[in-house]
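Ticket opened by: R.M.
Priority: normal
Category: complex prediction / small molecule

The reporter submitted a protein together with glutamine and asked that the result be attached to this ticket for the collaborator who will pick it up next week. Submitted input follows.
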Amino acid sequence: MSTYGQLITDAVRELSSLEYSDAALESKELLGLVLGMDCRSAEFDEKLWQEADDDSEQRFFDLCQRRLHGEPLQYIIGEWDFYGKTFKVGKGVLIPRQDTELLIDIVLEQYKNPDRLSVIDLCAGSGCIGLTIEQRLSGVSLAMVEKYTDAIEYLFDNRLRFGSSARIVKGDVNDETLPKQFRKADLIVCNPPYLTAKDMKELQTEVGAEPVEALYGGEDGLDFYRSIIRIWKDVLNVGGAMLFEIGSTQGKEVSDMLIQHGFKDVRVRRDLSGNDRAVIGFKK
Ligand code: GLN
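Result attached by the on-call engineer:
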């Protein structure tokens, strides 16, 4: 018989073999899931001294095996935090990244208590960007576009979770006719797939478990920027903003594209690691 604490010790040893993992944290998260407890709580720490029951031990072991086979922790848990709120995630949808929180910072700097702000989130995935903007600002009317059936399920669930009345449109952002379904917007925000063919060959195992459709942006990673700027710019009001997440080497190319399409005040912004991570431009 083992205590829950001993199960954690064993799991940490096993999970340490994974290249990108915080084995201690992940083991606790997985045990918390099995026990239905918050692994950061005092009750959880107490529980570690108790004898583990067979059923919990087996379920914990099964979850650790899934993790050892490269399934991301976030998919196993089924939710993940973004900008202080918890979103439902799972196979088929991109996991919210901390780097992406920069987009929210930029929006909150740019717009303070607007009376009305019409926002479109393209390639919305879990909805973490659009729904966070809607939560954080007054007067937002939000539309979110997502192409894939698996991902859109999470989008509907998260909309419900946040009591949002955002419009969800199933469609391809590269479809030239799609913008006709939208009224003019003040802000178009998008975290498109932007990994290059070379990046895709070097993916860490966990990222490889995420949908390739949410990651691969064509040979040079820039396909979505090229078509989105061209197809969607006319949906913006004069003075409206287009805001993209970008790969760390794509700042110049994406800025140039916005400038070529007549955007002004185009700026590249860095994430907390100091990498270029976002580009914003305003319609003249
Ligand atoms: N930032 C993600 C990664 O590095 C890529 C997400 C995207 O292509 N939008 O895995």
